[in-house]
Amino acid sequence: MLLLHLARKSLTNRLLTTSLTALSIAFSVALLVGVENVRTGMRESFSNTVSGTDLVVGSRGGTIQLMLYAVFGMGSPVANISHDTWKTWDEHPAVSWTIPYALGDSHRGFRVIGTNDSFYEHYKYRGGQLIALAEGRPAKTVFDVVLGSQVAERLGYELGERISVTHGMSAVGFMNHDEMPFEVVGVLEQTFTPVDRAIYVTLEGVTAIHMGWESGGPPMPGDEVSAEDVLAMDEVPVSQITSFFLGAESRAYTLQLQRDISTTEDEPLTAVIPGLALSEMWRGIGYAEDGLLVISGFVVLVGLLGMLVSIYTSLDARRREMAILRALGAGPRRIVSLLVLEAGALSAFGALLGVLFVYAGLAALQPWLEGQFGLQVPIQALDGVQLMYIGAVIVLGFVAGLVPAIKAYRTALHDGLSVRV
Amino acid sequence: MVIETPNCIDARDLTFAYAKGPPVLDIPRLTIRSGERVFLYGPSGSGKTTLLGLIAGVLNPPPGALSVLGHDIGGLSSAARDRFRASHIGYVFQMFNLIPYLNVRDNIALPVRINAERKKRLTSGLNEAIASAASDLGIEHLLDEQVTRLSVGQQQRVAAARAILGAPELIIADEPTSSLDANRRHAFLELLFANVAEAGSTLLFVSHDLGLADQFDRSLSLPELNRAGE
Fold first, then answer.
1. Which residues 6+ apart lie within 8 Å of B4 measured at CB?
2. I need a surface site. Which of A141, A161, A363, A414 has the fewest CB within 10 A?
3. For A190-241, how does the pLDDT look when each residue is reduced to its tens digit (9 = 90+)?
4. What is the pLDDT, as a whole number, of residue B204?
């Protein structure tokens, strides 16, 4: 009890150094635990880019490539899927719904995706949240356009704005489809997924863009199709899409469907289970999170070194105090225990403070992180790994106290008593 | 090893040198009887503090050369010396050596709380013993003060109270009066003598101020005892 009393008095006596040391440990621990939380959040956010979809289907090719162009809007498909093949699968008895995607065009650097009503009804992300319209309505007619939230924000478009669409993916194409007067009819809610960075039109709209371009270049004079011509048509014929998302009637059909789609003889197709593909992709790019972990490990090390230094330097000032305690009969075990207790208490207090920082920081920053980076960092109880980190910090704190403690005991007697004040 | 002797301190051929240095002390014979009040004087650098350090077991004397209260100090381990000192010796340091972050009461209580044997020797409860020692030395109103707020004279009396609490057999005082003026010096000595007499302790008092010598039973000149440096 005497030890506790002395340790408490001595720590509070050096309140400034003590609190600075505790603070530096707290920050290291907060960083370590915080990074662990962000890691989890990143992984969760990534694997929830698309959810509720059982299969993503595209022309025969690599699964990663398919995920990239269909889900992340990166790269381009190798080949298209015929409208009829898609319809076959859409009407398959084991299939509940499909969302067709017709890719390949852009507007000022943002992808234009041709799709249908099914997109607004079935596309889910982040643990089953449906996409929703912030304003306006879904694209219904051939020249209707719905903007992802980031597109609307960047380009500053409002409902009723007329835009043109570029054939191909370059930001400023020389083959502008200027003659096609698309009109913004809706803006999607923010999803923090690639959905925010795309422009949605109907399948018919994508077909209309390409009318007269069948030869692969701009229409010859006299072959131009005007907006009036398109609007005058009874039905705009859709012949191709690039990929589709598929929801099965039951999860149980997923594997069978995947096999059937991949082996169908009509057209070479690839079907991917998005959850599996996403975690496979995360394993590929997840080494970044290991980097984060290593860095925060070093931060903790620096924090502990800081504590060691501050205990060590304070020892010089406390040499006399240690000598007095020894002169009054405190044996080596007591002197060492006192210093180790102080160091341990400091690091334990620092670690506790650090955990508090993390939770306070998360509570304060969670909406901002989500709004700014689309990062959902969960506020949850510490998991085993985090508890292990914190335990390690506290144990290291005790060990860090041991080194100066032994030195203190060694030097305590012979020079301590002759120190002049 | 316990040596049967009526002497409180018994040194024979006691030599001591700090690491690699020349011998600082070489004392053929020094005895102090139990209950004696001895004044030890000598100029600065004559080895006074070194001799006290050896007697208190702060420094490590050669085995067999120094017996204190029947214990061969040189034969004890460093931890055993710490324990021995805490149980049997009250030490009033030259620099008082109070713990700055403890209040007066905690400072006085420290040796008794560190050492169980010293605590056993208390005739009353710890708080009463502290109160009584404090009132003997006229600092009973200061018990809850921080020691850093006290005057030099008050700090000196706190150090003395700490040394006499639990009536150790031997009280060593290393120039405790050097920072006091003549009047206070006299008053402090009287208080110290009264307490030593009451506890039946041996007192070894070190100073370079020969004017105090006649108040003691016996005076020893360290330069005369010490052959080192001759």
1. B70
2. A363
3. 888 889 889 999 998 888 877 766 666 666 666 666 666 777 777 778 888 9
4. 92
Name which of A324, A330, A420 is nearest B82 (Cβ-Cβ). A330
Q: Which residues of B touch A413 (CB under 8 A)?
A: 58-59
Residues A62, A63, A64, CA angle at the centre, nearest 5°?
Answer: 95
d(CA A324, CA B86): 11
Is residue A268 within 8 A of residue A60, CB to CB? The reply is yes
Q: Give chain B's domain count.
A: 1
Q: Is residue B50 part of a domain?
A: yes
Chain A residue closest in CA terms to B114: A330
CATH for B157: 3.40.50.300
Calculate mean pLDDT across residues B213-217. 88
Which residues of chain A neighbour B82 with C-beta distances below 8 Å?
326, 329-332
Residue range B2-43, pLDDT digits in tens = 444 468 889 888 888 887 788 888 889 899 998 899 999 888
Over range A108-129, report the average pLDDT: 88
The reply to whether residue A9 touches residue B97, judged by beta carbons under 8 angstroms, is: no
Q: Which residues contact A156 (CB under 8 A, 6 or more apart)?
A: none
B59 near A CB under 8 A: yes
Measure CB to CB from residue A324 to each of B79, B86, B99 and give the nearest one.
Answer: B99
C-alpha B126: how far from chain center:
21
User: Are the Cβ atoms of A420 and B95 closer than 8 angstroms?
Assistant: yes
The residue range of the domain holding B196 is 7-225
Rounded mean pLDDT of chain B? 84
Answer yes or no: is B1 within a domain: no
When mean pLDDT is compared across A161-170, A302-311, B166-175, B183-192, the lowest value belongs to: A161-170
What pLDDT score was predicted for residue A173? 42
Task: Name the residue facing A329 among B53, B78, B82 (closest C-beta).
Answer: B82
Long-range contacts, stretch A41-44, CB < 8 angstroms, 24+ apart: A41/A369, A41/A375, A41/A376, A41/A377, A41/A378, A42/A289, A42/A375, A43/A282, A43/A286, A43/A289, A44/A376, A44/A378
What is the average pLDDT score of chain A? 81
Tell me, yes or no, whether B230 lies in a domain.
no
- Give the rounded percent of residues in chain A with a pLDDT score beyond 70: 88
Residue B122 located in a structural domain: yes
Least confident of A230-239, A304-313, A404-413: A404-413
Q: Does B88 touch chain A (CB under 8 A)?
A: no
Instruction: With CB atoms and an 8 Å threshold, state whether A329 touches B91.
Output: no
Six-digit token pair at A171? 């930001």
Measure the CA dihedral A247/A249/A253/A255, to 10°.
Answer: 0
